[in-house]
Amino acid sequence: MTLLIRHSLLLMFLCAILGFLFPSASMALFPFLPFVLFSLMTLTLLGIDQVKLMERLSRLNIWLYTAFHSLVLMLLVGVIGWLLGFSIELGLASVAIAATGSLFATPAIVRALDFDVMQAMAMTIATTLSLPIVIVLTLLVYQTEAIELDWVGYCYRLMIFIFGPMLFSYCIHKAVPKVVLNRFLSKITPYTIFLVFAFPFGLIGGYRTLFDQAPWIAFNYFLIATGLCFLFFGLSYCVYRRKGAAFAITAAITSGNRNVLLTYTIAGSLLGPAFLPLAGAIQLPTYLLPVISRWMSNRAKKQEE
Predict the structure, then answer these.
(1) What is the C-alpha separation between 64 and 59, in angstroms, rounded?
(2) Which pTM was predicted?
(3) pLDDT band (50, 70, 90) for residue 98
(4) Where are the transmembrane segments (predicted)?
């Protein structure tokens, strides 16, 4: 078990490959991902002091990062798409991914690298809360039809996946003695990373379907998705490098991981026909980034010694 935890970042990437190789199993897991998501958020938040988390969310640098994560990268992706001659559908899909908040699995990935989980959690929540606003901006630019976002559904999901786990964690911290809770968390926290394995495996099955039907189109989507993923990761790392390697890698991981499933749930068909194939194609590069992050982290630690 210890060996699996040690190599968990590589295993996440392998899960994406397995999901591509076994699309039926991948699509069978897909409906259960919201339950996995809730469990992951709850266990992650249980290990975080809620007062400190709210204090971190009140900091200006978190919201400046959020503006960079969405607005700046949206503008950059839109300009690149225009220069490369993307169609309206592909341009909309690309900018919508740039508008997407960070994956809820990000704090667990950051914990596996021994970085600041609180920082990653604050960034994840802030980018998720900004999602409805930036998605509206995206649709205003790329679509002329009336915008009818599922606000009730979005608020419902916020309550379940953000405020619900936060409230549950707060109540547990108040009701359970700190010594007992810390003993429980010390035993279970290292294993929360295994819940992350479900996401790359369960989200890529739809992309495999496109690959079987039109392999050349699927390959083009993969190239674009890979370019987007590494653009988000690399640019974020460069922008925040002056704050130190740990902060820069945390920002890069948070920016590279995109919760495309939540974005699609909110905006649905308004995102156009290119969004879902692009969202599936981005799974492989997304879960390759933590492997690269591990290498970067080890290299940074050696340079500091």
Answers:
(1) 9
(2) 0.85
(3) very high
(4) 7-23, 29-48, 60-84, 90-110, 122-142, 154-176, 188-207, 219-240, 261-282
